[in-house]
């Protein structure tokens, strides 16, 4: 009798091990293990490069980059240079300088297995250092008897600076392995700028054209970026999460 009990116990153990093995294999078959890429995205603003080629009053560039800190947060930065000539019937002003923007993006898009696309919102603090030259202007008059006389001055305003905050909203898609294209819009609020005597800042590099009514500004851009993978993170995703 004792011998039969040992045999039954032995058979039970074998069945238990087989069951656990089959169940474990079934669990693995219902999930996919893959390596997700983390690293540095480096690129350029294509809109600024294109505008340089077709707009005689503008030349500039922007290098942008971000580092994927975790699943959804990217530390981001942009650095660039703008040279813009503001030309209207009564005013001609040239502005030139460099800028840097620092902040972060949060990805709100849930990717499929192996994808790293983004629909994101972000925040930036921008700093610009620039100069401005008042080339010529006309005195405003309501008397049309005589043509207004153009005043050529070529007055320079140097060592100017400005600070602003910026919200960004955009998307990014992977076109090829590690190659991403994207677009975004910018909403800006000017925090501080160098005051000029008897004149205003017309164009601030990195911020865009200013106005007399409020401290708001706007912008947009198109980018191409390359991901430099620095590490990978092993992830498991259920194939049939509803089971």
Write up this protein.
With 243 residues, this protein is an alpha+beta fold. The chain has a single domain, classed as Porin (Beta Barrel), CATH 2.40.160.20. The chain is built from two helices and ten strands, in the order H-E-H-E-E-E-E-E-E-E-E-E. The chain has helices spanning 2-29, 46-54; strands spanning 31-45, 58-68, 73-88, 91-107, 118-138, 150-176, 179-193, 203-204, 208-209, 216-238. The strands form two sheets. It has an eight-stranded antiparallel barrel with strand order 1-2-3-4-5-6-7-10. A two-stranded antiparallel sheet has the order 8-9. A hairpin with a 3-residue loop joins strand 8 and strand 9 (208-209). 21% of the residues are buried. Residues 1-28 have low confidence and may be disordered.
In short:
The chain is an alpha+beta fold. Helices cover 15% and strands 61% of the residues.
How many individual helices? Answer: 2
- Contiguous runs where pLDDT drops below 50 for at least 5 residues: 1-28
Could you say which structural class the secondary elements and strand pairing correspond to?
Answer: alpha+beta
Mean pLDDT over the full residue set: 84
Q: Please describe the biggest sheet, giving its number of strands, its sense, and whether it closes into a barrel.
A: 8 strands, antiparallel, barrel
Which H/E pattern describes the elements? HEHEEEEEEEEE
Number of domains: 1
Fraction in beta strands = over 45%
Note the quaternary state here.
single chain
| Total E-strand runs | 10
Q: What is the radius of gyration computed over CA atoms, rounded to a whole number of angstroms?
A: 30 Å
Helix content: 10-25%
| CA-CA gap between termini | 44 Å
Give me the CATH fold name: Porin
